[in-house]
Amino acid sequence: ESVREHAAVCKVLISISPAVAKLCVCDLLVAQCDVNCCCDPDCSAADFSLFTTCSVPIVTGDSRLCSQKAALYSLDVEANPPERIFKLIDQVNPSVFCIHAINYEKALSFSSPEMPTSENFDQLLKQFGSAAFSAEPGSWNKDIDNQNASDANETYRYEYGAPIQTVDAFLRLPSPVVSSWCSDANPAGFLVNQATKCTRSVSVEKCSNMQAVSMLFYINSSILAVNITVQSIVVQSLNGMQTLLNGSDVLRLPMILDELCINIVLGVSYHITYTDAGEIIEAAASFVLGAINKEALSIQQSFKISFTQVNTEPVPLSGNPGYVVGLPIRAGFRPQGYPFPVEILFAAFFLSTNKYGQLTILQSTSSQDCLAAQEARTPILFGYNMISGCKLRITAAMKCQPLTQTLLDLLKGQSFPEYVASFGNSQAQDVLDWVPITHRHISEQRIYNAFQSSCQIPVSLEIEVKWTKYGSLVNPQARIVSVTAVITTTAWKQLPSGRERTIPITSSVVFTDISSPAEPGYKAWPTINAKLPFDFFYPFV
């Protein structure tokens, strides 16, 4: 009977997951039964009958898993003799932060690092000596044996703000940190347009050996499967004159010539092309090269990075994602044939008079003559309340209907947009990210006498932009909710011959924040009061 009970215990333990089977913390004696240790495989039925309780009533794997098997141990004291009861259940972790699946089991425990010796030092230096490394690159995929060599050339899918990886580390975008001096530790973030300037110490004697002033330093690392190509090279003389070189396929390295160090990098501009899936398919760099003399102790370098989605026209953004105060409101039109096909919605974004698809108003001029200022327009900047205007001189020869159309073109422009982007980075294909402009008409005079004409001429355009704070309370993003354009008209009165009069024509823009603050005792967003353990994501960052 003892042998059969022992075999049954072993059979049960084998059916449990390996992690649970190994976790019997009360099993301290080798090949002996530990008192009150119900999970000890060395205990027999006779031993269990002498137990008073189970010191470890439940055995689980890692407590951070969302769902796992759990072994429950208890004693049936009413049986004669008392016997152990075992149950295997599915345990669900109630915590909000839990691990759903394990793709790298060794990450759940700390492994002892390999100690460097004279025999393995070179191998460890090669593996861990760079800025970024993988401890066990082959262990991240369980089906590594089934992969072919072409998988190494697969592109990486990025999320917004993720550092752009290169073969050895990250794409560098030097920037000033504490002082104005350049730091090369700043990685470029995906879809994060940046422009930086910093100062770097140089000397003519050492310039040929300084990596940070060489073109090779900025293009020698490919972005995973994408090589960085040289798009253009501009050479700047000592007096500041710049010349664009015809060929950009020649690598120009710093060199000393007649007490000058030439071909040093003064500026780098990266341009990244990506797909809608977040894959980088092309990377190009434009350089500005210059020269220094012996008196120069430092140079100022400028760096820039921009992103363009493939098969789309580059559009200047006004925020990412929310609008930035002081940047233009982006606007567009619905093409003919909508809603079929949907794919071409907002394809006609750019106009000859409005190159960047912006919402504009009348721009005031020094002459204040409305008829001479028809082409003068200024973009509406987010968050800036604006007012502009001019004066219209009306003569007896003017007719109402032609003048009405002229004033409408003056106030609204040649082509007034139909939609505005709700976010500063809204793409043309994202239909729901665009807000239609609502139009209203108001008449200054509602009651007319028998001698008054029913013709109305527009005298003002008032645009109200309602916006709200969207997203996290820590970093809210400005989102446009609605745009209303109100045209105010007044009754036209034909002047007698030889008479003139002047009327003011005005345009204005008002921004209204309609964000609703949280009421006392009411939480606008659910909050989670939880703290992750310090090693929760080990070894991930």
TrEMBL record:
UniProt GO cellular component terms: MKS complex
GO aspect biological process, one term: cilium assembly
Domain Tectonic-1-3 N-terminal, residue spans: 20-121
Record's keyword terms, sorted: Cilium biogenesis/degradation, Glycoprotein, Signal
Domain Tectonic-1-3: 157-310, 319-513
Entry superkingdom: Eukaryota
Complex formation: Part of the tectonic-like complex (also named B9 complex).
Family indicated by similarity: Belongs to the tectonic family.
Designated name of the protein: TECT1 protein
